Amino acid sequence: MMIVEGEADFLALKDHVDEADVNIVPGNGKAIVVPAITLLNNDSVPDVIALVDRDLEDHAGNPSPSYGNLFFTDRHDLDATIFYTGSICDRIAYSFGGRSGIDGFLANGSCKTVAEAATLLALPLGALRLISVRDGYDLPLKKFPLGEVTKGKSTIIDVNKMAQIAIQRCSGAVTIAPSDLAGKVLNELTRISDGMPFCSGHDLVRALTIILRVHASYSVAADVLEKTLRAAFGCTELASCVFFSQINVWRRENSRKIWRCATLAA
């Protein structure tokens, strides 16, 4: 059995899994999957693996247990992993935005790829998520309106406005002022050399919708882009993922097939 975090992860991977060999099931969240795999391991239940989001564990100081059958996505979550795998992001950007719109956007900026530009847009929110988790602010950042804090046609985020909106979304008392929170974000950004691990799939997709709308005059819903990204995640892309290689080690040690694609199951 392969347990994944949720329905979206299940849909992204189910066509790659040979369910005659291994059942793949959604586990309704990391907070359920990790304790479940712990209990199964304690009871010595064989032939069960789990794949969960890496999230910000490497940076927030709250790592999950380390088990030989518990695997983590390469990036923040599975959608972020897919977003950064190969040229998926840029292929989809060109498909929706057209060559002239995307080429013009890249020619007028400092980014070489759409994925790089999307990272610039999503990273400040990723830094805010890290601060919220690590420092205990517990800010309600789900479905954050990234478009409301983007400065004009740039890939620059208004960090002060972002902090203000984040605090306004809180239902209870907040122990930090918007200006201080913005300062924390800016300070955090100076310490990040690689932004990719900090960006969630949802934030990256919303950044891509902004790029397409503002620079290619094409409006597309975030959920449509998410589904398109997952559909573009083929055998070749899966085989390039670190988590795939790690699961393959377990697969061979346990004489399982797991993967549907012949080249993956070899």
Task: Record the SSE blueprint.
Layout: E1 2-4, H1 7-13, E2 24-26, H2 30-42, E3 49-52, H3 57-60, E4 70-72, H4 78-84, H5 88-97, H6 99-107, H7 114-134, H8 159-168, H9 178-190, H10 201-216, H11 222-231, H12 235-239, H13 242-253, H14 262-265
Parallel strand pairs: 1-2, 1-3, 3-4
Helix pairs in contact: 4-10, 5-6, 6-10, 7-9, 7-10, 8-9, 10-11
Using brief descriptors, characterize the structure shown.
single chain; 266 residues; 5% strand; globular
How would you describe the overall organization of this protein?
With 266 residues, the protein is mostly helical. It folds into 2 domains: 2-80 and 233-265, Dna Topoisomerase Vi A Subunit, Chain: A, domain 2 (3-Layer(aba) Sandwich), CATH 3.40.1360; 97-231, no CATH class. Helices cover 53% and strands 5% of the residues. It has 14 helices and 4 strands. The protein has helices at 7-13, 30-42, 57-60, 78-84, 88-97, 99-107, 114-134, 159-168, 178-190, 201-216, 222-231, 235-239, 242-253, 262-265; strands spanning 2-4, 24-26, 49-52, 70-72. The chain has a 4-stranded parallel β-sheet with strand order 2-1-3-4, sandwiched between helices. Strand 3 (49-52), helix 3 and strand 4 form a beta-alpha-beta unit. Helix 4 (78-84) crosses helix 10 (201-216). The two termini are 19 Å apart.
